[in-house]
Write a structure and sequence with these properties.
alpha/beta, TIM Barrel, 8-stranded parallel β-barrel, 12 helices, binds flavin-adenine dinucleotide
């Protein structure tokens, strides 16, 4: 069973996001992370795509490698920004022909360090990519959800309405990371009122690096509640304490989400297994095994300076 919609229908999903490495050192870190993530038996992996195609081949190669060699089905991210429809179609046909069954259809964001605007693409919104993917193959197609609204949305109601339109065609959604559980619950309730009950998998990102999280939260429009910001700021000059408090906060959020009935958790791993493993352990997720070597991956699995997820 490798369609993620089937996996979700069978029970809760615990999944991990990875990005394709762009250097030999990053490849080595990814190998360490994968070795440490497999004992968690993730329900699926999702592999990011650089908007405009900056990781086109690297995303493809990692997806195919995981499809062939890993115990969890991979989901290929694909973004429509700056691509022609013909390009997107050919990427989807290639995945279909190689047996990939899961695609996350996105509009895309330019890389954090982009200095120039990307050219216009043929498709404007992710919904058009969902429709294209469904026309190319029998893909299970996921979409992005933004619990606090996408920064480009004029208001939260309009944001929820466009999400509902996407989800009527797609199979499930994964959210941007967030820190206010109420935002997620409100989103699910709003969708339900619009007659949409497809699963919405909440995205969790343990804060392990203050600077990266602030920048990503700013770009994605995610609020960091003052109580959480204060806990992190109190230890901001001690990286190990930031990590410990970040894992503590993510565990509290995960615990509450599961208690509220979320269909699982999607971990933004930043290509490092450590924080995900610790949250897993704190939540008592029963499939956790082999935690005794966590300390050995602490130095090898971390994100390097300047590395970003897209
Ligand atoms: C789980 C997850 C994974 C991600 N992975 C990646 C990745 O691999 N690579 C990457 O570059 N980015 C990634 N992103 C970021 C994402 O691409 C950005 O947040 C992007 O800015 C919006 O993408 P979207 O698919 O939600 O866009 P859309 O659904 O197209 O929405 C974008 C904006 O347009 C609005 N809108 C939608 N339809 C209409 C319409 N018909 N009329 C008017 N307005 C409309 C929406 O309300 C929203 O404000 C990811 C995000 C998430 C949550």
């Amino acid at each position: 069973m490798t369609r993620i919609s089937d996996v979700l229908a069978a029970g809760r999903c615990f999944s991990v996001e990875l990005w394709p490495p762009r250097s030999t050192a990053a490849e080595e870190r990814l190998e360490v992370a994968l070795k440490d993530l497999w004992p968690l038996a993730p329900s699926f992996t999702s592999i990011t795509y650089g908007a405009g195609g900056s990781t086109r081949e690297r995303t493809h190669d990692l997806v195919i490698r995981l499809l062939r060699d890993s115990p969890a089905p991979p989901m290929a991210h694909l973004t429509c920004m700056a691509h022609t429809e013909a390009d997107l179609r050919s990427i989807l046909v290639r995945y279909r022909d190689e047996g990939v069954e899961n695609v996350l259809a996105l509009r895309g964001d330019p890389p954090l360090n982009a200095t120039e605007d990307l050219p216009e693409g043929d498709l404007e919104y992710a919904l058009e990519l969902v429709e294209l993917a469904k026309s190319v193959g029998n893909f299970c197609v996921a979409v992005a959800a933004h619990p606090e609204g996408h920064p480009r949305s004029p208001d939260i109601g309009t944001d929820r309405m466009h999400l509902a339109e996407k989800l009527r065609v797609a199979d499930f959604a994964i959210t941007q990371f967030f820190f206010r559980v109420e935002s997620y619950l409100d989103l699910v309730e709003a969708l339900r009122k619009m007659g949409v009950d497809k699963p919405v998998l909440p995205g969790i990102m343990p804060i392990t690096n203050v600077r990266t999280v602030s920048r990503m939260a700013e770009l994605s429009g995610t609020q960091v509640p003052s109580k959480i910001a204060e806990r992190i700021e109190a230890v901001a000059d001690r990286p190990q304490e930031v990590h410990r408090i970040g894992v503590e906060i993510a565990s509290e959020i995960g615990n509450r989400l599961l208690a509220e009935g979320a269909p699982g958790l999607h971990f933004y791993t930043m290509n490092s297994a450590l924080a995900t493993r610790e949250v897993y352990s704190n939540l008592g997720l029963d499939r956790l095994r082999g935690t005794d070597d966590i300390s050995t991956s602490r130095s090898a699995g971390g994100m390097s300076e300047g590395e970003t997820c897209k």
